[in-house]
Amino acid sequence: MKGIQELISHIDLEREVVIQAHDFPDHDAVGTAYALSRLLAANRISSRLCYGGEIQSESLAEMIRILEIPITACGEAGLDDDAQIIIVDGFVGNTNIRGVPGEVVGVVDHHVPPTEPNCKYFDIRPHMGACSTILYEYYKISTTEMEPNVATGLLIGLMMDTAFMTRGVAPVDLEAFSSLFFTGDWQTGSRLLKNSLSLADLSVFREAINACIVATDFCFVPVTKECTPEVMALVADFFLGLREIHFVVVLEPEREEYRISVRSEDNSRPTDVIIKKALDGIGSGGGHVHMGGGSIPRDLFPGEEVLRKRFLRAMGKG
Ligand SMILES: [Mn+2]
Question: Which pTM does this prediction carry?
Fold first, then answer.
């Protein structure tokens, strides 16, 4: 059985342990990283928390403040080559993990990996709605009492990734939810998640509503304004909320690449499969059945209309 004791058996106690959330982390990644560091602490192993890129989400920044999570950017952490890295909610083969010094000893994740991780310990459970649920199980199996702040962080991660328990939910996610709900502070958690937009984001929505192209139940939404992954995800969720729409692609330009955020309400069109087909040869991406994302380097970007048609073809419609 995978769990904290097996992970610990692979850790060299003489060397530093660093828990790394994926680049431009989300609530699930930070909540999981924090829970893991506290669980290691309960086993008398100290660790540091870091992330690649930057925190782009205001609500995540507030979660970190309120829960007093001691996480810093990898660049500021001053990691040395000797560090033992545990990656959560993402995988080293994945493009959203930045190459940091140190040895990757562990991966705890709920995304389908592109290849099997090449490290001492990995626990990857793609059927789970959130990485937070995996940490819930680690606490449960090891019968470790969970601090309220840890529970709140995991609850936020779980609610975020499952869109308040309506997306990709496994039975164990429900078990985790009902336990974390009473151990943690669900009011704070839901307030943070339900106020993640600001007036400044309205311009992106305005543009998206004007630019969207609908073909039967597929909505393609090219925006030209740069926005955070979180706002992109909320734009995608907004369009998925339209009764006629069952598949959404939001396209957004960044400095060096185009990013896409994808949502599906149709199990026969899982986002990870459709993204891989549509971006074949021009970009990369992945995700789960109901939510996914990807990126296309600028020099390979085929143009909005060609990209839209690639998605139509990937869905067998064109
Ligand atoms: Mn996640």
Answer: 0.89
pLDDT 10s digits, 43-75 = 999 999 999 888 989 999 999 999 999 999 988
Q: What is the amino acid identity at position 93? A: G
**Residues with CB in 5 Å of ion ligand 1:** 28, 89, 131, 161
Q: In the listed set 194, 210, 244, which residue is the last one of a domain according to the structure? A: 194
Q: Give distance in angstroms: CA of 35 to centre of ligand 1.
A: 14
The alpha carbon of 134 and the centre of ligand 1 are apart by a number of angstroms equal to: 10
> Which of 188, 185, 174 lies closest to 148, judged by CA?
185
Q: Which domain holds residue 148?
A: 4-194
Distance 109 CA to ligand 1 centre (A): 7
Last-in-domain residue among 194, 228, 250: 194
- My answer on whether 214 and 237 are in the same domain is yes
Q: Which residues pair with 250 in a beta bridge?
A: 221, 261
Q: What is the CATH number of the domain that holds 223?
A: 3.10.310.40
State the total domains in the chain.
2
